[in-house]
Amino acid sequence: MNEARRGQWIFYSLNQTSSYYSFIQTVIKDLPSQAFKVEELTAQGKRICCD
């Protein structure tokens, strides 16, 4: 895992050279979509940012 600090925020990303990378990708791929939650928050006027 990699991390980058920007002010009070810490951003994490997966280390693509890790031997666990393909396993983690498979697990993430099988997680249910949360797109409906993003749509709900947007409809409530909340600011959403996904990089």
Keywords:
20% strand, 2 strands, 51 residues, single chain, alpha+beta, 2 helices, two-stranded antiparallel sheet
Main β sheet profile: 2 strands, antiparallel
**What best-fitting shape do the alpha-carbon axes yield?**
flat
The mean pLDDT is 89
Indicate the proportion of strand residues. Answer: 15-25%
* DSSP helix fraction: 25-40%
Q: Low-confidence parts, pLDDT < 50 over ≥5 residues?
A: none
Helix/strand/pairing category: alpha+beta
Q: How many β strands by DSSP?
A: 2
The run of helices and strands is EEHH
Tell me the distance between the termini.
16 Å
In the sheet with the most strands, the strands line up as: 1-2
Output the radius of gyration: 14 Å
Number of helices: 2
Explain the overall architecture.
The protein has helices at 21-29, 35-43, and strands spanning 2-6, 9-13. The protein starts with a strand and ends in an 8-residue tail after the last helix. β1 (2-6) and β2 form a beta hairpin. The chain is flat. With 51 residues, it is of the alpha+beta class. The chain contains two helices and two strands; from the N terminus they run ββαα. The longest helix has 9 residues, at 21-29. A two-stranded antiparallel ribbon has the order 1-2.
